[in-house]
Amino acid sequence: METRKLLAAEKKRCNTHNCAQAVVCTYCDLVGLPEQTALDIAGAYGSGMGNMEGTCGALVGAGMVVGLATKDRNLSRARMKEILTKFQERNGAIQCKQLKGIGTGTVLRACPDCVADASEFLEEFL
User: Fold this and answer.
1) Is the Cβ–Cβ distance between 21 and 46 less than 8 Å?
2) Is the CB of residue 61 less than 8 Å from the CB of residue 26?
3) Mean pLDDT by 10 residues, the chain (126 residues)
4) pTM of the predicted structure, to 2 decimals
5) Which class for 3: exposed (0-12), middle (13-18), buried (19 or more C-beta within 10 A)?
6) C-beta neighbour count of 84 within 10 angstroms
């Protein structure tokens, strides 16, 4: 499969999608999910799960796609753990607040880049 990570990042960069939506909508065709449904499902996961600066929305979106792609609870969990581990190793955090540098003033990774990273790691399983 040709990478779609730059397409996902552009959806976030141009501000038409939140981070979760950018990931889910980029891969929705591969898992049989209508794009509007993908937008709706992922809509509440921007700015770190419900705007609470928790887990990065791009990672949440990747988890949604993994679940739909595998249809296996244990396999989904194992793959998601791998995605989270790789993302943490690359970026130093998985929480939106930490990635954005809220409270520290040090941005670890810009949102479009987080979307690209989560997409890159997701693609390893698609």
Assistant:
1) yes
2) no
3) 93 95 98 96 83 87 97 96 98 95 94 97 95
4) 0.94
5) exposed
6) 18
